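Comment on both lines for my students:
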Amino acid sequence: MIRHIVLFKLQPFESEVAKTEKLNEIKDALDALPAKISEIISLQVGLNANPAEAFDIALTVDVDSLEDLDIYAKHPDHVAVGGIIRPILESRSCVDYII
């Protein structure tokens, strides 16, 4: 099994309200993926609660194999979520490991 962990740091927003709205939009879109992508065994999205930390979103996805991870990455619904994140993304870190 492969665990895919991604941390996202978003660009600054004009207000905390705008940031919160965008974070919730992203979380909702990510949370909807397991119903659309059968390769996902589990998916968790966490919004950072600690303002002293740099990243805004943590995503953890479990799949059976690197091949399934590739299917997930290329799936149109996953790509669509990337379209929400990419325009406001400042940085991203990722690790994929065997569990």
About this structure: Strands lie at 2-10, 42-47, 57-63, 89-98. Residues 2-98 form a domain with the Alpha-Beta Plaits fold (CATH 3.30.70.100).
